[in-house]
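Sorry, I am new here, but would you mind making up a protein's amino acid sequence and the tokens describing how it folds?
***
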Amino acid sequence: MPLTRTESASTPEWTSGIAVVIPCFRVTRHIGEVIAAIGPEVDRIYCVDDCCPDGSGDFIMASVDDPRVHVLRNAANLGVGGAVMSGYRRAIEEGATVIVKVDGDGQMDPKLIMSFALPILEGEADYTKGNRFFDLSKIRDMPLIRRLGNLGLSFMAKASTGYWDVFDPTNGYTAIHSSVAARLPLDSISTRYFFETDILFRLNTLRAVVLDIPMDARYGDEVSNLKISRILGEFLVKHVRNAFKRILYNYFLRDMPIASLELTASILLLGFGVIYGGLHWWHSAQAGVGTPIGTIMIATVCIVASLQFLLAFLAYDTSNLPKRPIHLRLSRWRDARRNGGTSWN
């Protein structure tokens, strides 16, 4: 049976519930089957027509007879990320507890919805995402180009998001606690295909707990709008930008652990070693004489030491993963405020 909710004349106020957000863009061939497969554990289904040229919203309203379904319409095409953010806003506004995002092209099995929602409901995570690489025997079902692309993107995403223990960052099967989603800068998150990874970066700045959920991908006759050749350069630039911002936020603005000093020492030593060694090599080459051994050793020692400090920083960063779900603290903080207190503990 669906989780209980109370209805008002204007905005429903759920006591507990799971909402599903489905971005809809050229999915009329599959969306009916996807909605039909969503079980009774889901209270509300938001289908976001992202200015679909096939009229996904009208198609759903005409062909789907499910009282849980609500069609949202974007006036302009905002991309898959923009469509999901529209669904998030409505689900947060109407009081959902957990928001699950499912694609409308049939690649994601709706029967797994509780697998994604349960770790959040039980207080183990703030955000869950699918991992199609967990079962090695199933990887061969994934097209080769997607396998290679995901391997490269996963490594870049680990560095830019700080979640070194998650994989398959572009997997769009996700779930999030609504109180955490409400703290995300929804207007700043990338609206196109980078949005899954951008959300991970934003979650890390909140110190949210992220958990991978094993899943098998299903590939049929759906048409993908994602072209690797078009997004590779864009993704690389955005990963570098987010990595820089994450390190700045977490290691110099919000806190300054020993890793901050290690990274600073690494940068300074590397810069000094390269500049000092390069200038002396240039002067020696211009003069036609050999560079003194002492000069070479100073530059070499600085560069080697910088690499050691960098490895120490990376060792700290890979182990510096959020461990306590923040939605539990947010809930306790709200309870404390209701009772006249302000403690987060």
Q: What stands out?
A: Residues 258-319 form one domain. The first strand starts at residue 5 and ends at 6. Residues 258-287 form the longest helix (30 residues).
